Amino acid sequence: MNGQRGTMVVSLDLELCWGRFDKVPVPVLEADAAEERIQIKRLLALLDRYEIPATWATVGHLMLEGCTRHDGAVHAEVMPRPDYSWFPKDWYVHDPCTSAIQSPGWYAPDILEWIRGTRVRHEIASHSFAHIYYGDPECSAMAARADLTAAMAAASKHDVLLRSFVFPRNQVGHLDVLRAQGIRAYRGADPTRFRRTKGVLYKTLSFLDQLLGLPPKAVRAEEVMPGLWNIPGNHFYMARNGVRKMIPMASRVWKGKQGIRQAIRTGSLYHLWFHPFNLNADADAMLSGLEKIFAYAHKLREQGVLDIYSMDDYRTHLAAGAGEAVGALPTEAFA
Hints:
The chain has 335 residues and is an alpha/beta fold. It is built from 8 helices and 10 strands. The chain has one domain (6-320): Glycoside hydrolase/deacetylase (TIM Barrel), CATH 3.20.20. The protein has helices at residues 26-49, 109-116, 141-156, 175-180, 199-211, 249-266, 283-302, 311-319; strands spanning 6-14, 55-58, 123-126, 164-166, 185-187, 222-225, 228-230, 235-236, 269-274, 306-309. Helix 1 (26-49) packs parallel to helix 7 (283-302). The longest helix has 24 residues, at 26-49.
């Protein structure tokens, strides 16, 4: 088997209550966020154990210590807002305008410090300021610019320079705005095997893909415009809730291992991603599955056939034109 050096990237969408308030009642979100904090600490320990750097794409509002209303207005400095017809309210309608102590689901500077206090050096990236959907046709370039400017300002108060971006709901849009604000890499949407199918058929085929643990579709990073790289995802680590409980953990782990093997065989990328709240349901099993994937990646990195980067470090590596193919890899290395 002719082996090449593969690459692994792990990115995490850190959003707490900001990610789903258009779909889930706020009390449920706040309870989920409390549980999520527990799993974040466990995940950080696991990443440290296997020396896996991750990109923590963080909603900018979470970096605030708190915020207040001024003459009844919420974040009047972040204007204009997106004008979504499907959400006919002010986007900040659920912002408690309190503090991190009073509303830990909406502010999380403490989590930021947890991430920065680990032995492994993680990347803090942007997941927008308020989880708006840049790729939605009703989000203007001006609204995206105002949101990203606010995210940059919140990060700068912690001496964080944002270089990578993960689009909320993976809705890619306004790449020119990202580049103008200094973003150098973003996570593009995962490729799909079932592009021509829709509805129930699509859901059925996607479920079978996860159930059988089929290898993720191979992906490669691409410089989509000068200085801006697309580092697409290809393995969403699916939660164990609802019908997804039927998918064995072994299938999730097998999909991850196959993704790593494929990246090495083809000299390409394995990009694992999820939200920390995806670990809430059956957390012990979910973290055990991640540990198996991380241990496997760690072993192959020790063998010199796999690199593990944050998004920005990988972008730097690509931009420098580094990385050479390695010699033949023995089959038993994949055991």
